[in-house]
Specification:
heterotrimer, A mainly alpha, B alpha/beta, C mainly alpha, B: Rossmann fold, 2 domains, three-stranded antiparallel β-sheet, 10 helices, C: mainly alpha, MetI-like fold
Chain lengths: 243, 280, 280
């Protein structure tokens, strides 16, 4: 029912989509897309943009790990007598950060950070802080309480208990969440540029705007390679962590 | 540190709120520097007594006094300072599996370190010699830089005891320190504990299943039965008749320590990760 | 003095992990540098006068959000369009995914019943898998960019973009779900001479229906998020409106729409959770 309503209210232009004109355009697009260019000057720019994208994703994730952890501590109830006054407000912040997609953050940040990869990095960092913060907070709450309790009985302050008892237990879980988000962020970083957030996306929207489909196609290939590279790195890292 | 237990009742640390109290109306006194073994059949309330003395468990009635002050009457700050002078070694020491032995042992120093020192110690362990010395008393010095999850149950238990030796605690409370050790290791561990306690003039209270070990190493023996005091005598006055009476109906425990295998089924498995569902 | 003794006299302990830690810390620093350069990481830019002032003004406009009835009506309409794009997109994605899944699922292969799959069938399956990979590895935003060029601004591009990417995802996961279950009922149907579609509807589908619907609903929720984002490249809905308002620095409008968006996401989360509980 919802589906029917959806189709009915949207002024979908199927006629236009299936028109001869559109078909011709599509045909031309596809023909050019299968013919990527790797002319040297362009290839150089492409490599730099790829590295930029990679750096954006890695740095954005790193920022998110730091702030996510800082926010996860007040956002978790660490033991039964913990009143956790900050739990609700911090969770609210984390939820707000999380529910706004990276791309919207990037568009918002353009005003203060200007066009370029910096805005994109911050956008990734903000959204991922929300995601990781919540996951980290859950990891903290689910950690076995024994080691923390034994230090608490000794009168150790909470901060040090976290560092010596809770954190070492959840590090593997935090790493796995982080790597998983990094895999996500490389995909996001690749397209953030479309709104001006730097990296491959910015190049893509530029060339696509000029209908240079050969360049577009090379950029798409670069994106896929980058995604595959990060997935492989993350896999290797995970396996190293198993030991 | 002097300890007064005055008409205390409490439930077992992990019991439900409506469970029957594990100790009732206990009154006893430990003088500074005293070494006492608490014996009794399983379920007699030994662990609960230790938890009450360690301020890990608030007595449901009665009170305790540590060095003359009631820990549950002072403010949080004073309670924390007081706790810095206590050490409670659990039967199965809860240690983070991926932590290294050196860090796990030195965690006992945390009440004495500032925040900055304790952070720095995570990157390069400060006072490693302390940890090495404590471990060597338990014949574990070559495990200093191993990871806790690579140790056997007995080794882990001794690491937990070694943590007690690096603290500056004036009251050492040890719960079943020998439950995972063979007889030779047991002797060694008990004498390491008593020697260390004597060196620093700390009060040592240990619960023990091994009655003969308790009689050999501790000058004063307290017998608990069904949460109440059965006897409180110098070791020399504890006769086989008294012991038989204490362990009546549970004579097999007198013959040999009941090693509770289930409590040593290794560290609990890491909690299963919650399924993460995200778009993409 | 033997070597052993001299080693004991100089018990200066060194942490064997230290050199490794220093190495990794340095490696991290060395990696950080190009990363900071490449991302033009200059946080102070945020606090310079000519970027701080417009930011503060923009943020200042956030409160109060714009709630004129005419504007609210517009926002509601765009929100509905966002939901509609997602729903229509998922519906089309199903049209893409279901046939491809049926071809690619190994359990429904008739030739595989007698041992190996016939080469033609196996090649067909491989091709379908590649098509699915291709569809989902291109982000929906890129598909939208392409189709905005072809059919012009408006929801059509968004619907098609979602249909293609989500078609790829659904196809893959449907395949996994169908192949992970117990295939016994299905193969026995096939063996008894039922057609593929018959054995799908009577064997495979009832077995996995709950899981399939649950995943579809979950994807629908994801599609709502991404359809809002697709607006930023001109594919209609809330995103497009937000983009316009941002370009005009209309803080109050952006704030209203952000709130609306969060409510939408929260609501979709609620509905999808409820649906999945009731269907599963």
């Amino acid at each position: 029912m919802l589906t029917v309503a959806s189709f009915w209210t949207l002024d979908l232009q199927w006629a236009k989509f299936f028109s001869l004109d559109a078909m011709k355009k599509m045909g031309k697009f596809i023909a050019e897309l299968t013919n990527p260019t790797f002319e040297s000057a362009f290839a150089k720019k492409l490599v730099i943009a790829s590295l930029e994208t990679l750096a954006m994703s890695a740095l954005g994730t790193l920022i998110a790990v730091v702030f996510g952890l800082l926010l996860a501590v007040p956002a978790s109830k660490s033991h039964a007598d913990d009143r956790a006054l900050w739990r609700t407000p911090t969770r609210l912040i984390l939820n707000a950060l999380r529910s706004i997609p990276e791309l919207v953050w990037a568009a918002l940040l353009l005003i203060s950070a200007g066009l370029g990869p910096f805005a994109g990095t911050l956008a990734l960092g903000l959204h991922t802080t929300g995601v990781l913060g919540r996951l980290f907070a859950e990891a903290i709450e689910n950690a076995p309480p024994g080691p923390a309790q034994s230090l608490r009985v000794q009168g150790v302050p909470e901060g040090r208990i976290f560092l010596y008892a809770t954190l070492p237990q959840i590090v593997p879980q935090l790493m796995s969440y982080t790597l998983y988000r990094w895999e996500n962020n490389i995909r996001a970083a690749a397209i953030l540029g479309v709104v001006g957030g730097g990296g491959l996306g910015q190049m893509l929207s530029f060339h696509m705007g000029l209908f240079q489909m050969q360049e577009t196609s090379s950029i798409l290939i670069a994106m896929m390679l980058l995604v595959a590279l990060v997935d492989a790195l993350s896999y290797l890292w995970r396996r190293a962590m198993q030991r | 540190m002097r300890v007064d237990v005055i008409d205390c009742a409490a439930r077992h640390p992990v019991a439900k709120l409506d469970a029957a109290p594990a100790i009732i109306g206990l009154t006893m006194r430990f003088d500074a520097g005293e070494q006492v073994a608490v014996i009794g059949p399983s379920g007699a309330g030994k662990t609960t007594l230790l938890h009450v003395i360690a301020c890990a468990l608030k007595p449901s009635s009665g009170r305790i006094e540590l060095a003359g002050s009631d820990p549950w009457q002072v403010d949080a700050r004073a309670l924390r300072a007081l706790r810095g002078d206590l050490f409670l070694a659990a039967q199965v020491p809860p240690l983070p599996p991926r932590q290294r032995v050196v860090t796990a042992v030195l965690a006992g120093r945390l009440p004495n370190l500032s925040l900055w020192q304790s952070i720095r110690s995570l990157f390069y362990p400060a006072q490693m010699e302390l940890a090495a010395d404590a471990l060597s008393r338990f014949d574990l010095d070559e495990k200093l830089f191993d990871r806790v999850d690579r140790l056997s149950g007995g080794e882990r238990q001794r690491v937990g005891l070694a943590r007690g030796l690096v603290t500056s605690a004036k009251l050492l409370l040890v719960d079943e320190p020998l439950s995972a050790l063979d007889p030779t290791r047991s002797e060694q561990a008990v004498s390491a504990l008593t020697t260390a306690a004597r060196e620093r003039g700390a009060t040592l209270i240990a619960t023990l299943h091994q009655v003969d070990t308790a009689l050999r190493h501790f000058p004063r023996i307290i017998g608990l039965r069904d949460g109440a005091l059965a006897f409180d005598l110098p070791a020399s006055e504890v006769t086989p008749e008294i012991l038989r009476e204490l362990y009546a109906q549970k004579l097999h425990e007198l013959a040999g320590p009941a090693i509770d295998a289930s409590s040593f089924a290794d560290t609990p498995a890491a909690p299963t990760q919650p399924a993460v569902m995200h778009c993409r | 003095m033997t070597i052993n003794e001299s080693a004991r006299i100089a018990p200066k302990l060194r942490d064997p992990a230290w050199s490794r830690r220093v190495f990794w810390a340095l490696a991290l620093l060395v990696l950080m540098w190009p990363m900071l350069v490449l991302t033009e990481f200059k946080p102070w830019v945020l606090f310079e006068g000519d970027s701080l002032k417009p930011t503060l003004k923009f943020l200042g406009d956030f409160f109060p959000p714009k709630i004129e009835s005419e504007f609210l009506w517009l926002v509601f309409r765009e929100t509905w369009r966002t939901v509609a794009i997602a729903t229509a997109g998922i519906a089309l994605a199903l049209l893409v995914a279901i046939p491809l899944t049926l071809i690619s699922v190994r359990v429904l292969s008739i030739s595989a019943l007698t041992g190996r799959m016939s080469p033609a069938a196996s090649i067909a399956r491989q091709i379908v898998r590649w098509v699915l990979i291709l569809l989902r590895s291109v982000p929906e935003l890129i598909w939208a960019l392409v189709f905005v060029r072809v059919v012009g601004l408006g929801p059509t591009a968004g619907v098609i973009a979602i249909a293609l990417t989500y078609g790829g995802m659904l196809g893959k996961v449907y395949g996994e779900i169908l192949e992970s279950g117990d295939a016994h009922a299905t193969t026995s149907l096939l063996r008894n001479g039922s057609g593929r579609m018959q054995s799908f509807f009577y064997g495979l589908l009832p077995q996995n229906a709950a899981e399939l619907t649950s995943y579809t609903v979950y994807r629908w929720e994801c599609a709502i998020r991404s359809s809002a984002v697709l607006g930023f490249v001109g594919a209609g809905g809330l995103g497009q409106q937000m983009d316009t308002s941002m370009k005009m620095f209309a803080g109050a409008e952006v704030s209203t729409m952000l709130i609306m968006f969060m409510l939408l996401v929260w609501f979709a989360d609620l509905v999808s959770g409820w649906l999945r509980r009731n269907l599963g």
